[in-house]
Specification:
Layout lengths: L2 H7 L11 H12 L12 H14 L13 H11 L3 H22 L9 H12 L3 H19 L8 H21 L2 H6 L16 H5 L7
């Protein structure tokens, strides 16, 4: 698959994408952080290691850098820490825990640090291989769960639904974080430094060759 072409043609349809000052500041902070040893802000260090492996499973290195090479894992952790609502944070933590528990059980390992791409990929693939009918049911259950958490009520979510919630959320955040990275913004998407020519209305094919605009 030609990832460059896929990213160019991908519309802003993930539900998260809003070019706010807070988001742009977050992207800039990830770009500036070049430390060799990363300490997550929201996740534990072990969860951060798993996250780094997972984002590269979703977007490995091809003709463009891998997700971790453009610091998508930093972006996701900081987005969760600084922007997500409390109930979204709770869902992410809980669902990631159940996802990791499944990977540990299937691999026979006891430490998160020892989980490899080979251990995590089957769990990710299984979580995402749900029918549209199942997804509709899962989304209703997830919505009910987050609403209960928001209202500070006791809430629980089936393990399988939780793993789907994490995998689906992670996939969307990874693609979004990748598209907002400096490299993809300048080299893959349509990019015009500010200030640029203002065209109130224009055909996307004529203006950018069909590419989505970089943030």
């Amino acid at each position: 698959m030609d990832r460059r072409k896929a990213l160019r043609n991908m519309g802003l349809s993930l539900g998260y994408v809003v070019a706010t000052p807070t988001l742009l500041t977050l992207v800039q902070s990830c770009k500036q952080d070049t430390a060799l040893v990363w300490t997550p802000d929201f996740l534990s260090k072990e969860e951060g290691t798993v996250l780094t492996t997972l984002v590269d499973i979703i977007l490995p290195k091809t003709d463009t850098p891998s997700a971790s090479e453009v610091q998508v894992h930093l972006f996701i952790d900081r987005f969760a820490n600084e922007i997500m609502e409390p109930e979204q944070k709770e869902l992410l933590k809980m669902s990631m825990g159940k996802f990791i528990d499944k990977a540990l059980a299937d691999s026979g390992k006891t430490s998160k640090d020892n989980l490899t791409a080979e251990d995590l990929e089957p769990v990710l693939a299984a979580a995402l291989s749900t029918s549209k009918e199942e997804q509709a049911k899962y989304f209703e259950l997830i919505s009910a769960y987050t609403e209960a958490v928001r209202e500070q009520k006791t809430a629980s979510l089936d393990d399988e639904v939780s793993r789907f919630a994490f995998a689906n959320n992670l996939r969307g955040l990874t693609i979004w974080g990748y598209k907002t990275s400096e490299y993809v913004g300048e080299n893959v998407l349509a990019y015009m430094p500010v200030p640029g020519e203002y065209i109130a209305c224009g055909d996307l094919e004529e203006l950018t060759g069909g590419k989505a605009w970089s943030l």
